């Protein structure tokens, strides 16, 4: 199972993903493909995301969580490895200015 979520993605990238995956909500794509196709699709996302951001999650029975994920683009949520467990770290909000 593969899930890709896009934010602020160009229409041509959304269309490219819609060929392979089902868009269940705006910017949320779901499908069931092997590793090779998943890597191909993620390469398409990373090359075409422009100013947007994206996350991909897929089933991985080889770890305790049962899934893996990656992100690309500008986003406050960044994956970090903490003692072999993949967690999400929130970066400081850059939109609020200090006085």
CA-to-CA gap between the ends?
Answer: 46 Å
Count of separate DSSP helical elements = 2
What is the CATH first-level class name of the domain at 8-50? Alpha Beta
Q: Could you give the order of strands across the largest sheet?
A: 2-3-1-4-5
SSE pattern: EHEEHEEEE
- CATH architecture field of the domain at 8-50: 2-Layer Sandwich
CATH topology term of the domain at 8-50: Alpha-Beta Plaits
Per the principal axes of the C-alpha atoms, what is the gross shape?
A: flat
Residue runs with pLDDT of under 50 for 5 or more positions: none
Instruction: Please state roughly what percent of the residues sit in beta strands, choosing from under 5%, 5-15%, 15-25%, 25-35%, 35-45% or over 45%.
Output: 35-45%
Please state the structural category: alpha+beta
Number of strands: 7
Radius of gyration: 15 Å
Largest sheet: 5 strands, antiparallel
Query: Please, what is the average pLDDT?
Result: 89
Roughly how much helix do the residues carry, as a percent range? Answer: 10-25%
**Oligomeric form of this entry?**
single chain
């Amino acid at each position: 199972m593969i899930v890709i979520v896009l934010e602020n993605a160009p229409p041509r990238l959304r269309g490219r993903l819609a060929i392979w995956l089902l868009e269940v909500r705006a910017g949320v794509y779901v499908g069931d493909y092997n590793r090779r196709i998943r890597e191909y699709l993620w390469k398409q996302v990373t090359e075409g995301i422009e100013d947007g951001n994206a996350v991909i999650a897929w089933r991985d029975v080889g770890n305790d969580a049962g899934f893996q994920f990656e992100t690309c683009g500008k986003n406050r949520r960044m994956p970090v490895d903490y003692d072999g467990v993949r967690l999400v770290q929130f970066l400081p909000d850059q939109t609020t200015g200090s006085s």
